[in-house]
Structure prediction request, 195 residues.
Amino acid sequence: LSIQYGTGSMNGYLANDTVEVGSITVANQVFGMSQTEADFMVHLPADGILGLAFQSIASDDVVPVFCNMVEQNLVSQPLFSVYLSRNSQPGSEVIFGGVDRSHYTGQITWIPLTSATYWQIKMDSVTIDGQTVACSGGCQAIIDTGTSLIVGPTSDINNINSWVGASTNQNGEGTVNCQNIQNMPDVTFTLNGNA
Prediction:
């Protein structure tokens, strides 16, 4: 088994076991066991990566754990939700089979997928102070909890970075001073007609 991520990679083999996530027990789940991985992955404060994309892009056509949860009738609804707490505060959650209504107000706006591979959707534009700064005329976007970066065409990313006052680090990545967040402009992502 060899997997290349956006940053990093792993080599290993496939295994099969019972997987428990909270109170959910998934029988006969196939998963990857890492033998070697990128150096930075060794030092992450986690034991692994849980892939939540579709089987169509899974390594060796492995059925993802959430698909097995649905197929084995282990969740009340065929959906999962993610809440990411701010900064390094505890409290981030993944909820399989529903949503935690305490983390939002109003109604959920559902956006259709444009491809059942990644969680890919239509993005209409990225605007700052009413000016379109990226994705002019629309583009495709992937919602990915496995990355902390916004990735896109160089010209669009450079334009966003310029508007928010980002500086470029030694890896060529734009970074912002989070202590200055109160002075930063609002960045609006319009997805399928919803800002």
